[in-house]
């Protein structure tokens, strides 16, 4: 399967649905810490990493879909908005729908940090990504 076909809108949409489903499940599921595993702040690191990957997936969807009409900056802005508000939504749903999870501003901060790291990473790769998109 060629890269152009992999970057097709349908495949990118499925990737976005899959990653969003995983974030939703991870946000609302009940987890049990393994015995002896109690590293302070490890959940915040997990939030940061999860939202780093989540933002990358959404960026790829925005940037490579829509027949190439979406610019790099538009894709970055859309990615940030979608991922940030989805993170706040997940924290709110933890408070509203579960008895074992709660809304935490530090989780929102960790999510946002992951998104910002993804944006910085993408900014470093901007020229390569734009060039790759033009050659499709």
Automatic annotation (TrEMBL):
<dbReference type="InterPro" id="IPR006976">
    <property type="entry name" value="VanZ-like"/>
</dbReference>
<feature type="transmembrane region" description="Helical">
    <location>
        <begin position="76"/>
        <end position="96"/>
    </location>
</feature>
<feature type="domain" description="VanZ-like">
    <location>
        <begin position="42"/>
        <end position="125"/>
    </location>
</feature>
<feature type="transmembrane region" description="Helical">
    <location>
        <begin position="108"/>
        <end position="125"/>
    </location>
</feature>
<dbReference type="Pfam" id="PF04892">
    <property type="entry name" value="VanZ"/>
</dbReference>
<feature type="transmembrane region" description="Helical">
    <location>
        <begin position="44"/>
        <end position="64"/>
    </location>
</feature>
<feature type="transmembrane region" description="Helical">
    <location>
        <begin position="12"/>
        <end position="32"/>
    </location>
</feature>
<keyword id="KW-0472">Membrane</keyword>
<keyword id="KW-0812">Transmembrane</keyword>
<keyword id="KW-1133">Transmembrane helix</keyword>
<protein>
    <submittedName>
        <fullName>VanZ family protein</fullName>
    </submittedName>
</protein>
